[in-house]
Amino acid sequence: MRTVNAIAAPSATEPLAPTTIERRDVGPKDVLIEIRYAGICHSDIHTVRGEWGPVPYPLVVGHEIVGVVAEVGAEVTRHAVGDRVGVGCMVNSCRECDNCRAGEEQYCLNGNTGTYAATDRDGTVTQGGYSTHVVVDEDFVLRVPEAIPYEGAAPLLCAGITTYSPLAHWGAGPGKKVAVVGLGGLGHMAVKIAHAMGAEVTVLSQTLSKKDDGLRLGADHYYATGDPATFEVLENRFDLIVNTVSAVVDLDAYLSLLTLDGTMVNVGAPPEALPVHVFTLFGNRRSLAGSSIGGIRETQEMLDFCAEHGLAADVEVIGADAVNEAYERVLRSDVRYRFVIDVPTLA
Ligand SMILES: [Zn+2]
Ligand SMILES: [Zn+2]
């Protein structure tokens, strides 16, 4: 075991505070990563505040991790000391079920092992990336291409793959009209990736306050959903709608914007159940779908795609002492577009 510096949530109601945690010894198939940057995902905040269920406190969150390989186990073949690597939302899965065998470990039928707050296959509780080091099985460690700046790479491990996977699955590309609902951490990556895939991209945001940003990120059009005329103008327009909003939305209103065989896929997670009229789905043979992160193979494909197209997240780098303040700003949507912790400030 090795003791490393971290920032942890002591409880649902206290601020995060510096502490130390234990990392397991580097096993034969393990990689020890010296973490450089860790992104702050909205899920981190929901989790530490107990909003998504019981939490094993004290808890270190963070599942947008990039760093350098510091040590490898004797049987590791995919990574070497000094490599630029990343870890996303999961660090293990059963590897035997149909979904794991299909390379869709995020949908492991026995439950994938989350990067934090999960019970790992060895019985220990996983602790995330707000920490100077992490030990991860090599199969769940990604290569981060040189072309992507470290800090801009971190959010790709959650926000990037969460949007890339549905865009790839539903065929965003030339000739396709894609709408992105919400321009936050997920939404800004969806716009960049959909544009790079060659789709015609429209942002649907509550107001026009981020319109200049949206167009700069690659959107062709930008509409305010607060304006009822938007839903008339855009009726029957889109092949794919990627909804990144975690709040309640009027599904029927958005579904009515889909053209023949169009799909609305949800990647934001409102806690409430949302009603939908089946008649809205009858029209244009529409589909309502969901998508959760991506498998390891696809996550690597996403990183390579981003390198090839010069994509990275727009980030604001902060020191470890500014995380609590950053949480408050995330809750106010006051970040463009992702906070990333400069992890060596923890040392
Ligand atoms: Zn996340
Ligand atoms: Zn499985």
UniProtKB/TrEMBL annotation:
InterPro entries: ADH-like_C, ADH-like_N, ADH_Zn_CS, CAD-like, ER, GroES-like_sf, NAD(P)-bd_dom_sf. Its EC number is 1.1.1.2. Keywords: Metal-binding, Oxidoreductase, Zinc. It catalyses: a primary alcohol + NADP(+) = an aldehyde + NADPH + H(+). SUPFAM superfamilies: GroES-like, NAD(P)-binding Rossmann-fold domains. It holds the Pfam family ADH_zinc_N. Residues 11-341 form the Enoyl reductase (ER) domain. One of its GO terms (molecular function) is zinc ion binding. SMART domains: PKS_ER (SM00829). It comes from the Bacteria. Its cofactor is Zn(2+). It is an enzyme of class 1 (oxidoreductase). Belongs to the zinc-containing alcohol dehydrogenase family. This is alcohol dehydrogenase (NADP(+)). It comes from Cellulomonas marina.
